[in-house]
Amino acid sequence: MKSSLLPWVVVVAAAAPFGALAQASAPAVAASAPRATRPAPKLMTPAQKRDTAGHDLQPERTPATQLTIPLKKKGQPPAKPQTYRQSQKTAKTGGGIDDAAARCKAEPDEKARAACLERLERDSKSR
Questions:
Q1: Contacts 24+ apart (CB under 8 A), 91-94
Q2: Given 1, 59, 98, 104, which residue has the most CB atoms within 10 angstroms?
Q3: CA angle 42, 45, 48 (to 5 degrees)
Q4: DSSP per residue over 12-46, as a string?
């Protein structure tokens, strides 16, 4: 035997008794034998669920009542709702750009532009 393998032989020889003890203490069980399983937990009936859940769902303390804070002064009259015609007037006179005047100013010819603006002035005075 070579001297370089000697340490390995010593380790294997020393470990052999421990391996035999480990195999001897474990019971031999066939691989195809069924394993022991835990029984399934027992399901609760609806009545049992109702009885046990009743006390868990209640709050620890009663919730605080909600406060209402008035945003208007007490003497103020209530605001009147707008009628349909009033809302249409505010929508039409909302400001912005006059489309007819913009079309007139977009005319390429100077004479046509002046005539269009003059016609707009006449129409607005008659209204």
A1: none
A2: 104
A3: 100
A4: HHHHHHHHHHHHHHSPP--TTSPPP-PPPPPPPPH
Structural element, H or E, at residue 61: none
Enclosing H/E stretch for 114: helix 110-126
- 120: Cβ contacts below 8 Å, ≥ 6 apart: 100, 101, 104
Can you give the residue ranges of every domain in the chain? 99-127
Closest by CA to 113, choosing from 104, 121, 122, is: 104
From the number of C-beta atoms within 10 Å of its C-beta (0-12, 13-18, 19+), residue 107 rates as middle
For residues 11 and 7, give the distance between their C-alpha atoms in angstroms, rounded to a whole number.
6
**Predicted confidence band at 70 (pLDDT cuts at 50, 70, 90)?**
confident
